[in-house]
Amino acid sequence: MRRSRMVAVTGAIALATAGLGGLAASAGATAASTQTQSAARTYYVLAKSGVSAAELASQLTRAGAKVINQNTAIGLVTVTSTDAGFAAKARNLASVQGAALNRAVGQAPTAIKVKPDPVEKEHVFNKSRANGSTKVPAAPEGADPLDGFLWGHEMVEAFTARATETGDKVRVGILDTGVDGTHLDIAPNFDNALSRNFTTDIPAVDGACETGDCVDPANTDDNGHGTHVAGTIGAALNGVGISGIAPDTSIVNIRGGQDSGYFFLGPVVNALTYAGDSGIDVVNMSFYVDPWLYNCRGGAPEDITNGGQEAVAEQNMVIDAMTRALGYATEHGVALVGALGNNHEDLSKPRHDFSSPDYDNPIYNWDTEPWERTIDNSKCLDLPTEGPNVIGVSALGPSERKSDFSNYTTDLTSGEIEVSAPGGWFRDGLGTDSHRTNGNLILSAAPLNVLQAEGQVDKNGNITKLGRDLGTLKSCVNGKHNENTSACAYYQWLQGTSMAAPHASGVAALVVGAHGTGTTASNFGLAPALTRSILMDTARDHACPAGGVMSYEDVGRSAEFTATCVGTADFNGFYGDGIVNAVGAVE
Fold first, then answer.
1. What is the pTM (predicted TM-score) of this model?
2. Going by C-beta distance under 8 Å and a sequence separation of 6 or more, which residues neighbour residue 468?
3. Angle at alpha carbon of residue 22, lines to 19 and 28, rounded to 5°
4. Where are the strands (E) in 152-245, listed by range?
5. How far apart are CA 117 and CA 244, in angstroms?
6. Rounded CA gap, 480 and 145, in Å?
7. Is the terminal CB of the chain with fewer CB neighbours within 10 Å at N or C?
8. Three-state SS for 171?
9. pLDDT tens digits, one per residue of 19-38
């Protein structure tokens, strides 16, 4: 989950995103083509409470718009119009809660078309001393061959907990860039029947389409982020590679992110409402809502001056739509887990935002550069983490210290953090051989096609020098080297709160499995409030650092990274209720 805002996106890509959005049919959403006239723009219109999507769609049609999608669960209607002033006119309708131009509203890191994320792939910028040739640590008895690398599993006691619970009746939704359902460690647990892709590839953003209709199959991931998340949660215990926290849980791809890592509002809310309608128990959300670092109700003070009413309307729209979608999912039995963010920021006292909006808006003639924004925590939200019912997760390194990049809070009443979990910290272990090595990161599944596109694996399936430098690993059936790539699986190292959230989601899956009711996956479940309370109540307490202040200057960070921890061992701003614990959760 990138919060550093240091990844550069080209102006050509930025301009191309405005007015374009990939939408696929969802439960409660009408299937429709996203092809529009060359002069048409795509808009989201949210109905007021009590007004159905169908009623609103009819009114918008009469107003000259073309309806291309309806999400009946939350009343969100997607339309196209050639009228540049359409959003403002739609907001004047009595039945409309909000309307805004369709723009990218989230971004996951490590996108193929952008530079490597400096947080999640920090090891790319530093030559590591622990690469693919390193001796594989011994795995716990009965575990998979690469499980010795999974210090995060050890920290949350996942290997011990699986003797009691493996999550076999539980469904976990991966709301991300997709999941490689053919990966040897994912395939045994991948639910092809329930998996959906709610996006359409956009060539200007994602590169050339892989399919004729630009809609990827629901078992692919051309980015790698979502597959890494899925592996930590539910990689199969099958004698290959790694095993997940909940190694028998069903993995459901509810893709809401583009190949390039962008997230559009329509696919995200469609994925959330689909999760509620399809019996998914837990949804992992390792992304953040864009183009605003924070979405502020009524806008930040500078937004009217620099962006006009549309800048304010867009943020109001994102808050309203996301709030409804998150609420709908929770009401329909879904426990929501979110990454706390990688901006090394006190979420209760946000710094000024110098990065939003993160690309142009040619329709509203906004400046080509972001403007400085004053963030008022009382009305500005980091979404989806600060949305309703979301379990916010901070990231820890192997030493159990808060990762330097991880967000935190000094307001213990704000509900910004619930728990902490292993997320990796490249700079951990100062003064030891582990400092600045891949072993401090999180190892998980990687799609072969992505590694080949990045040059880490060659066309024959062999790891290249670049791959060895980055620590890319390969595991084959029966543990034998095999040139047949279909008999082998690949793994990469990443760090971030994106990696912490799946550890918590995996433990949440074990909570549902151990304490839920029902006889089959279709009717099995546990109330999200109970999942949340058990996850938090059984987390292992961890006190603030001595003196309450953590400086990272000794590992080369600026004073801006220095963080203050407030609270007790029972609950504090670095660890929340503690480090998630699988043994406590299932017992």
1. 0.91
2. 131, 132, 133
3. 115
4. 171-174, 196-197
5. 24
6. 12
7. C
8. strand
9. 333 333 333 343 333 333 34
